Fold this sequence. Notes:
Elements: E1 4-10, E2 13-19, H1 47-58, H2 64-71, H3 75-89, H4 98-128
Amino acid sequence: MRYAVSRVLSDAGDVRLIRFGGHVPKGGYDVPHVPKQWGPPRRQFSEEFKEGAVRLVLDEGKTVGAVARELDLTPSALGGWVRQARAERTKGKSGLMKEEREELTRLRKENRELRLERDLLKKRVSALFA
Length: 130
């Protein structure tokens, strides 16, 4: 949200003009906007807890849903941990291993940066010949 306040001298005296650049912030323009946090803070789990939960699914044969209910987890979170553990146990035959996931993340970031650089260079070249 952008707005600008400028002062203009007129016959009536000092007048403040506001250039509209979006919706008025809550509390008006003089109150700084503080974004509201949505929902409760994200829970964090230790590696030991994750390993124990995965062990219940893979080694003891319990279902993801049952273990998730027992441990007050979402089935999608536990399912993700189980998929990662299966990939690690099978050395990548059932999914990406940890090192492969990290490399993929690094390569995607590098790719994104290179695309931005390429687009910037294209704009500069087109500005030179325009």
